[in-house]
Amino acid sequence: MKHQKYFMFFLVAFVLSAVAIAYPTKKASAHGDDSQFIAQSSLLAGLAPGAVFPFIDTTPNKVAQAHIAIGDSTSDCHPSAAPPDNIKILVGQAGVALVSVMDKSTNTGISTTPGQCVFHVTINAGRAGVPATVTDIVVLNGGSSALTGINTVTASATVRVDNSDLESHLHGQGVSDRVGPSKCEL
Questions:
Q1: Within a domain: residue 173?
Q2: What DSSP line would sit under the chain, residue for residue?
Q3: Distance, CA of 8 to CA of 6 (rounded, Å)
Q4: From first to last of its 186 residues, what are the pLDDT tens digits of the chain?
Q5: pTM of structure
Q6: Number of structural domains, the chain?
Q7: Which of 54, 146, 152, 165 is most buried, most CB within 10 Å of its CB?
Q8: Would you say residue 120 lies in a domain?
Q9: Does 129 fall in a domain?
Q10: Is residue 69 part of a domain?
Q11: What CATH code is carried by the domain that includes residue 74?
């Protein structure tokens, strides 16, 4: 009889734990609001000259803040000495407004591999020349040759996930343009 009581106790405890895990009472968020934290990294080897790489696209949600780091060659790898040679980081909304955010002030002077320097920037939507709407972080190879193994990009971002803007963003397309005619129109 004692074993049955213990079994029932553990069974009830297990079921209650499973229910508590399956049904959280609040959304998980790094900021305690309707936002989500994302992080992404990529090697950029092979990105052709003039080519763009849509690195992060949060459409239809908006980036509130992002921290972006790249590895690229430069003429002088000392803090704030020179801009990246090849990589341009563009932020904003594709098809609307993208601005470059990496310049000589983002040069950290950090280098452990000859020919590579680390650049960092933190952007805030609507501040310091950054568009108020940021849904895209784009990598542009502004150099004259394909990127190599020393070229990297890493970003982390806080994304607002309130879907109040959901209805028509999608890079200038309305929802009906994206999904086709509704059943009522057929």
A1: no
A2: -HHHHHHHHHHHHHHHHHHHHHS-SS---SSSSSEEEEEEEEE-TTPPTT-EEEEEE-TTSEEEEEEEEEEE--S--STTS---SSEEEEEEETTTEEEE---GGGB----SSTT-EEEEEEEETTSTT--S---EEEEEE-SSS---TT-EEEEEEEEE--GGGTTT-GGG--HHHHH-S-GGG-
A3: 5
A4: 565 665 455 554 555 454 445 444 444 444 456 899 999 999 999 999 999 999 999 999 999 999 999 999 999 999 999 999 999 999 999 999 999 999 999 999 999 988 899 999 999 999 999 999 999 999 999 999 999 988 999 999 999 987 555 444 444 444 334 344 433 333
A5: 0.71
A6: 1
A7: 152
A8: yes
A9: yes
A10: yes
A11: 2.60.120
**Which residue do the tokens 């452990």 mark?**
112
Look up residue 75 and give its two tokens: 């003429």
Domain that holds residue 51: 26-162
